[in-house]
Amino acid sequence: MMNAEPDNPHDPDLHDLDQSFAQLEQEARQAAASLNSPEAVENFRLEWLGRKQGRLKRLSDAWLKSAPVESKKQLGQRFNALKTVVESLLEEAASSGPSDAVLASEALDVTLPGTRRLLGAEHPITRTMNEVVGIFASLGYSVGVGPEVETDYYNFESMNFPPGHPARDTQDTLVIANQERRSLRERLLLRTHTSPVQMRTMEQQPPPLRIVIPGKVHRNDAADATHSPVFHQVEGLCVDTNITFSDLKGTLDYAMKALFGSSVKTRFFPSFFPFTEPSADVQISCIFCAGKGCRKCKQSGWIELLGCGMVDPAVFAFAAEKQPAYDPKKISGFAFGMGVERIAMMKYGVSDIGQFYSGDMRFLEQFA
Amino acid sequence: MNILSTWLRALLPDLPASVDDHQLAEDLTLRGIAVEGVIDLGLGNGHLFEMDITTNRVDAMNHFGVAREAAAIYEVPLKALLAPLPEAHAAATPFAVSIEAKDACGRFTARVLRGVSIGATSAASGPISAQVARYFSLLEQKQISNAVDATNFAWLAMGQPTHAFDLDKIEGGIVVRRARKGEKLKTLDGIERVLDPEDLIVADQAKPLGLAGVMGGWDTMITPSTTNVLVEAAWFDPVAVRRTARRHGLHTDASHRFERGADFNAAPLASALVSAMILETGGIIEGELVDVTVPAVEQRTATRSVLRLAFSEVHRLLGTTVNPEGISAETVETVLRALGCQLSASDSGAAPSWQVALPSWRLDLEREIDLIEEVARVYGYNRFANTLPAFAGAVVELPQASAESSVRGTLLASGFHEAISSTFTSAVDAALCAPQPGLIVPLGNPLSEEAGVMRPSLVPGMIAMIAGNLHRDVGDVRLFELGAVFSGSTEKVDQRPALSIGATGSLPQTGPHQRSRAFDFYDLKGVVEQILTRFRAKSVYFDSFPAATGLTPEWLHPYRAARIVVEGVTTGWLGQLHPSLAEQRKIGERKTGSAIFVAELYVDRLFSLPLSLPAVREISRLHPVRRDFSLIVPESVRWADLDSALANLALSGVSELVDWRVREVLRNADSNAEKASSETAGEDYSMLVGVTFQAPDHTLRDEEIQVLWQRVVDALATTGARLRG
After folding, report:
1. Does residue B121 register a pLDDT over 80?
2. What is the rounded CA–CA span in Å between residue B204 and residue B200?
3. Taking CB atoms and an 8 Å cutoff, what residues of chain B touch A268?
4. What are phi and psi of B58, to 5 degrees?
5. Which chain B residues contact residue A118 at CB under 8 A?
6. Cβ separation B369–A312 shorter than 8 A
7. Would you call A35 helix, strand, or coil by DSSP?
8. Cβ contact (<8 Å) for B369 and A170?
9. Which pLDDT tens digit goes with each residue over A54-93?
10. Interface membership of A169 toward B (CB under 8 Å)
11. Number of C-alpha atoms within 13 angstroms, CB side, residue A200?
């Protein structure tokens, strides 16, 4: 119903004209106030501003176009003012968003689980190895690596294993086929420790030297809960003038605290390795019972974790064949090695070493 | 090996009472004489120590040896082992002993006992027998007869192997020599052995009597009717004994000791201990001890040359102690003397040094550093301070470290778990998966047939791990492995890094908010593509070969396999696992409901490329125009053809063509085939390609877009694709 529109558009009475436009504006304001959905807003837009049937369009067609020239200005001003108001009402309604009722209809069960994008897990061995390597990197150690298939020279001879040492036996070491005819030092085998990388690095680089060597090693061991023919070690080597046994102790004490927490204590006791002298085994205070004694540490309060020692002068003598600076009278050094699986098993509570090599999703996803 | 604390205390009369057995065990352990277990033997019986002594310290694998260590630790005197022997009766002629194998036998002592009576050891027999009876019962060592118990006693007391022969079974004197070809010997274990000419034996004039240092012979063993005994105590060469023992598959207490080096000077005392105990039940000694030595061997063992030890070296290598007084020259002297060294100071003053004569039982001491270790060991490792050495060098990363971690990071972010599989595989799997089947490296002593060769590829390990999961009913698998693969010959083995990726099951894993779908070829290809974008390569493409060419690896589905080519070099393969292979492994699609997808990348070729560096391009403020082209494409035309047609168009001067991508591919066989309209005949399929146009300097006008649209249609038409009508 357009009863608010003046009967006679040509009435010169401006007062009437103003009243008519005020009424229209009033109407638009009332309609805009009750807009509560995007549909209602759209209907409002069509009703007032629709290009074909909108009220303003009709108003313009009915009054403005047919108005005599002298009243066009008066009409046009009022018409534009109304249009501006309607447009601003529309903009306001469109930007004010949906009503609470609308929002309520969109309610979600927030207790349902979120959609997780599956993240892959770094292998616990990689993770542990990187952690150890990172600790030594912060002490100035560079990373070194070497081949998994080694010669007897690097794996045994240059590491001061005498000929006929039991470790050289095929019961302990996996060997490449058809080596019998080669000279002993050229024979190929699967490295049994990461120590050959010590020699390879020293041959390449004069002292001072600090390297940490993560890697895979192999032994001719039947698999059980704590043994695997494939396992990993992190080896370290530090050579300089005036490197002492107390430096070795301090370095490993620092590393164990960094790895297992600052309350961990270390203790060293004599051991025997062909490539170090003096040699030591290192125990840490049990991380499960804080040294009080539990099943994990066999009630001793201590857990044996790594082997180490001062580099044997015989090893330096082998290195000096290519790098004369490794003169055991002038320099000294220490080396250490630890089993990555053992540390990972302890840190993460893994009871069977075989799980590391199973590729079992149920095991691996726990490290994500 | 087990040690009795009571026996130790008998040898250490001045050991302070404040040192209880547990303290003793701990102090020994911290000095390298490891006590693994301490077992209470009941009131008055002390404790049994279960020892774990490193092989270099064979001298400490007996009661006297352990007591000597304790004496050094506590600085108390060590009681000598005593074996009072009766006066010997004169012999008409001394018993004849000769050493022919002078390289392998350094000393041989023989003592003749006559008129002995062989029987059970009893406490009533005499003081040694009484002690033996008590120690043996605590050690749960079976008592056999006084002769056997006597040799066991000498073994437990001082770690010196000895042997008692029935003298009447010996013809003529003793000869230590190498066996002759074809000679036979029945050893004490009752086994008749054919001897090797390399075997070191103790023989008489007529026959072999025993494997020297390993095991005695059956025919000359002591029996209850034995009345005359010959007691042997000798020094045999480690290598000779090891070879003989290994040839015969024997490992005895005696061989264990001789292989690791016995004490050259121990033979006379051990002989006396054994003889004294046998004589407690009667009998006499005939003649003096026959003691034949080889001077050359004595010189390299008992009387080897002295070592020089400089005090400055002790400090240079050991460093700082907790106690500021640290290790004094007096500490060095006290420790080494207690261990049996003889020291003479070679000069005095601020930097003393010593000439050190070495004890005959410590063949492991050969160099100055060995003496420094002894000082540190007995002083106590835990009395050294914890110091950190200064360092001024730079930390160098491995050249490939960042490439590897970039690849690993991409895979982790894509939801793949890292796995590690065996380094070995079977010859069959190696032949199936090796990029170069002729270069497989076999092991000489494989753990099993399934692990007979070095893996030439990570694929067998990946298949095994996927199968393992499927067999455990884990249906969604996403794994990758970064590891070494091996090729070459048994002369030279090449090691290279490789990457395998494996997946099967649904994507994403089922949840309440999203429908899951099967992991497919393009999911795997997408991961591979993302890895490749980490590297700055001049070109990357994927292609495939007709099955007949035999160029596709056998483990892949011949029609769902792609070769990965980076800068013109084959860098890996990806695709669906060959359905026959899957069936064979009992992980076929019929059984599991999912196809398996595997990729292998020869990442050494990627790692040689620089990592890609983000290079930011100007983002235009002008609006791009997107247009979709709905195409009918002949079956023989692949996306790569359309892709390169558009690439050529862009390169040939149509710079407004800034992006194009395939949005949808529909085949008649697809489930939503209604979209693939009737216009696609049997040999055609539909494709929707989205193209973006943008001019660098202005917003494109409609008529310009019309022209560009037509050029795209024309370019696509060269491939045989046409616009849907």
Report:
1. no
2. 13
3. 381-382, 384
4. -65, -25
5. 415, 478, 508-509
6. yes
7. coil
8. no
9. 888 888 887 777 777 777 888 888 888 888 888 888 888 7
10. no
11. 20
The SS3 of residue B410 is helix
For A354, phi then psi, to 5°, come to -60, -25
| The one-letter amino acid at A258 | A
* Cross-chain Cβ contact A310/B317 below 8 Å: yes
Of B30, B396, B445, Cβ closest to residue A220: B445
pLDDT tens by residue, A243-278: 999 999 999 999 999 999 999 999 999 999 999 999
- Round to whole Å and give the CA distance between A58 and B695: 43
- Residue A308 near residue A245, CB atoms below 8 Å: no
How much is the ipTM here?
A: 0.86
CB B170 within 8 Å of CB B160 = no
Point out which residues pair with B499 in neighbouring strands: B482, B601
Inter-chain touch A362–B474, beta carbons under 8 Å: yes
Q: Do A268 and B381 touch (CB under 8 A)?
A: yes
Amino acid at B169: K
**B324 inside 8 A of chain A by CB:** no
User: Tokens 């203790």 — which residue?
Assistant: A267
Contacts for A301 with CB less than 8 Å, ≥ 6 apart: A285, A286, A289, A291, A292, A293
Token reading at A293? 């004694």
Q: Using 50, 70 and 90 to split pLDDT, how confident is the model at A300?
A: confident
In this complex, is the C-beta atom of B350 within 8 Å of any C-beta atom belonging to chain A?
no
CA angle B453, B459, B460 (to 5 degrees): 50
pLDDT exceeds cutoff 90 at B138: yes
Structure tokens at B546: 């007709």
Mark which residues 181-240 of B lie under 8 Å from A by CB. 239
- Cβ separation of B418 and A362 shorter than 8 Å? no
Question: pTM for the full model?
Answer: 0.84
Contact status of A356 with chain B (Cβ, < 8 Å): yes
Show the tokens assigned to A87. 């447009």
Angle (CA) A59-A61-A65 rounded to 5° is 115
Contacts 24+ apart (CB under 8 A), B334-342: B334/B75, B335/B72, B335/B374, B335/B375, B335/B378, B335/B379, B336/B309, B336/B371, B336/B374, B336/B375, B338/B68, B338/B71, B338/B72, B338/B75, B338/B378, B339/B68, B339/B69, B339/B72, B339/B374, B339/B378, B340/B68, B341/B365, B341/B371
- For chains A and B, CB pairs below 8 A equal 249
CA–CA gap between residue B146 and residue B438 (Å, rounded): 67
Q: Is B477 on the interface with A (CB under 8 A)?
A: yes
Contact A240 B389 (CB under 8 A): yes
Most A CBs within 10 Å: which of B53, B381, B493, B510, as the mutation test of the A interface?
A: B381
Report the pLDDT averaged over residues B29-55: 93
Distance in Å, alpha carbon of B37 to nearest chain A alpha carbon: 10
The residues near A109 (Cβ < 8 Å, ≥ 6 apart) are: none
CA distance readout (Å), A286 to A300, A301, B572: 8, 5, 47
In this structure, the dihedral spanned by the alpha carbons of residues B579, B583, B588 and B591, taken in order and rounded to 10 degrees, is 150
Q: Is the peptide bond before B508 cis (omega within 30 degrees of 0)?
A: yes
The answer to whether the CB atoms of B408 and A126 lie below 8 A apart is yes
Tell whether the model's pLDDT for residue B674 goes beyond 90: no
Alpha-carbon distance A138 to nearest alpha carbon in chain B (angstroms): 9
A217 contacts A194 by C-beta, under 8 angstroms: yes
- Cβ atoms of residues B505 and B539 within 8 Å: no
Interface of A with B in 11-40 (CB under 8 A): none
